[in-house]
Amino acid sequence: MPTAVPNSPITPGWLDWYHNPSAPTFTLPPGTVDTHCHIFGPQAVFPFAPERKYTPCDASKKQLFALRDHLGVSRNVIVQATCHGADNTAMVDALQASGGRARGIAAVRPDIGEHELLALDAAGVRGVRFNFVRRLVDSSPEDDLSLIAKKIAPLGWHIVLYFESADLPDLEGFFASLPTPLVVDHMGRPDVTRPADGPEFSRFLRFVAANDVWVKVTCPERLSETGPAALNGEHRPYADVVPFARRAVEEFPDRVLWGTDWPHPNLTDHMPDDGLLVDYVPQIAVTAEQRQRLLVDNPMRLYWPSEEV
Ligand code: 0GY
Asked: What is the pTM assigned to this prediction?
């Protein structure tokens, strides 16, 4: 009999996801897609990758689907978390259990073969993630990434980019050379203590305008300095991130995407109430038409192009 491998201890100080999220007061439109969420393990079933930079608490597909239903979300896009490295088994297992209600973004190595790519495609994978955040990956060699990009382009997939805003000037040329549509995580992680109409975020939006780029207006909880609390007595969670997200929604109404980022890896300050993240939406998409595009029409075009809501 094989001996069971004991679970690794969770990273000290790790914040567990919010177990009893509030029922949102804002009702999401039918067909809403959460385009940024992850699965962690469970590690006893899907062990984490040896090269990972953190060991999280478990966050299973069943728990993700329960959150989906609680929030009034219809579909998920599950982004491979770095703690699973390039082993996409847990994510693919979740796609297969979703009854067609989830798509995936994989992490792959440059030597991946066509057979494996086709199997990922059949399971519902529609893109790969290139991660440039130094605390999450050891390196991001452009030659390797270019090779991956060349292999996935014929499948009609796209590339999800995760980087820090300070690195955009160095990376922009490489990004522009990639042969697929690009999807940027968390608005390119702006420094929200700077003005939303200042040079840094304006440069990011010029990059969006000049290329085939979609923007996830996600992760206010990760970017915010003011946090989830009321501001000046008003119920305005993550108020300092709002001008950035709102500017992206207004300038690129057809290329913005929303998501929860559940189970919120590597937060150290607070763990967001996912119900509150839904209540945040009307602050950044102020008209019903903007919300319909952000939450339903845009993600359906990208991930379920031939399906009705
Ligand atoms: C996010 C952000 C983070 C982590 C990951 O895959 C990951 O480990 O994406 C982070 O630590 O900023 O998008 O979930």
From this structure: 0.97
